[in-house]
Write a structure and sequence with these properties.
heterodimer; A: mainly alpha; 2 domains; 1 helix; 27% helix; B: alpha+beta; six-stranded antiparallel β-sheet; 6 helices; 30% helix; 24% strand
Chain lengths: 74, 186
């Protein structure tokens, strides 16, 4: 497939996916619960440990010296 | 997604009606068919939590990209805030300490945005996230530049990228309907 056709198709998929999502998808989300409120028998709980960890780290294959709260990992 | 009475966050939760603060969803992260992207969703329950960035936010997706030249390394590209109804609220950039992966400057990360793998091989949620990235590519590039600029003008006694005083570096409110109308008009 030519690059230009690929781009057009990609854009179409892209737009279609968003258009579908933009409508009829407004549903109230469950309220997040703190760890101690969580039902203990739920098997897929991952408890995050250190308070000073980076809050959004992926934490896999980590090459960073400080852990991150929003990185990859658990 | 609409036909299934779902939205991106419910899809990510596998329609689970319980969500735990801080936990990353889905388990094992979104893998994007091994095309060099990863993402997860999480939220912070406590509204006073420093990590709870926006009052109207339910949680946010974090998107990461694998380096083309160093495939063992990953970098955070952008985060996508979602509201209580599962709708996109804003894009935002965070400081390095927040995500901790390998730091790339704006030009290097922008280069990664040139080749977003829009393919039906990805799950519906993955397609939606990548479509949002593609739709807002120019805005995200601008946010990356603003992120780096923001770091340059802030002051810190140590490494500014590890300074916990600085969390949020740049952000952009999302008006999806308006954006789509813009694109369709072009």
């Amino acid at each position: 497939m030519k690059n230009s056709n690929r781009l057009i198709m990609g854009a179409a998929i892209s737009l279609a996916a968003i258009l579908v999502a933009a409508d009829h998808t407004k549903h109230r989300l469950p309220t997040p619960v703190e760890e101690q409120e969580q039902i203990t028998e739920q098997s897929n709980i991952v408890i995050e440990g250190e308070e000073d960890a980076s809050p959004c780290s992926m934490n896999i294959e980590s090459d960073n010296e400080v852990s991150s709260p929003c990185g990859f990992g658990d | 997604m609409g036909e299934q009475n779902l939205n991106p966050v419910l899809l990510c939760l596998s329609n689970n009606l319980q969500i735990q603060a801080q936990k990353k969803y889905p388990e094992g992260l979104l893998q994007f068919n091994e095309t060099g992207w990863r993402a997860y969703y999480h939220c912070h329950a406590n509204k006073d939590d420093i990590n709870h960035l926006f009052e109207e936010e339910h949680g946010h997706f974090h998107l990461f990209v694998r380096h083309t030249e160093h495939p063992e390394s990953w970098s955070h590209v952008v985060a996508l805030s979602m509201d209580d109804m599962g709708q996109p609220l804003r894009w935002f950039m965070v400081n390095h300490w927040v995500t901790g992966e390998t730091w790339l400057t704006a030009p290097l990360l922008s280069a990664q945005l040139h080749d977003i793998p829009l393919t039906e091989q990805n799950t519906l949620l993955e397609q939606w996230l990548l479509s949002m990235l593609a739709l807002y590519k120019d805005d995200i590039n601008a946010l990356l530049v603003l992120r780096d600029h923001s770091l340059n003008i802030k002051h810190s006694h140590g490494d500014i990228k590890q300074d916990r005083e600085y969390y949020l570096l740049s952000e952009l409110a999302i008006k999806l309907q308006h954006k789509l109308e813009q694109v369709l008009a072009e």
